[in-house]
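Human:
I keep going back and forth on a fold encoding question. Comparing notes only helps if you start from a blank page. Show me how you would write down a chain together with its backbone fold. Write it directly below this note and I will take it from there.

Assistant:
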Amino acid sequence: MLPVLVGVIPFAMIYAVLALDAGLTPGQSQAMSAIVFAGSAQIVMTQLVRLDTPGLVIILTVGIINLRHVLYSASMAPYLQPLKRGWKWLLAYLLTDEAYVVTAVYYQNSEPVYSESRAGQGGAPAGEAGNDIRYWFLFGAGFSLWLSWQLSTAAGIFLGAVLPTSWSLDFTLALTFIALVVPNLRDRASVAAALAAGLIAVLAFNLPYKLGLMIAMLAGIGLGLWVEGRE
């Protein structure tokens, strides 16, 4: 997660500056990071708050922006299905873009890992609750990012006045995603999905409520499945 956190830190600080500029108090700005915990959604929320947008509109807008998490969670579900409900709620809260990327790659390139109590029994039966302990990887990825996000938000609240928003330091986050995704484009289906999603995301950038992002993801998934089916 360390390369990802390099991009997260300035992103959170920029959010804090925008939140204070929108009229939120330091306490409200920090609380939003703790409760919402979604960078792009928080920045959009601050913009809507600044425009005195009705609360229901803000909630609907943030919901649309975060629709991508439905896809993330569906992708993680097969690996986390045996867990108890409490763990699922916690991991759902910690599931962010960055945590999803590193965890998805880890799951795809690793075998189930069993606890020591099960190792002496030749491994646990498939499907038994809690036998595959790889969910700790997602917890570690999500918690490290959560802690960095909270600390960076606090730093932005107290030090953000010296950080011009015109620097657009949040772009470092996009660079870290490129570094994570590109090495995992190992076949024609994944390359096609990435190119289609990237192209459509750029073309549909100006659609309201960040709908272009959702359209791009669905298009990338569709083309990737089509190419994979033909192969």
Notes: The chain has twelve helices and no strands.
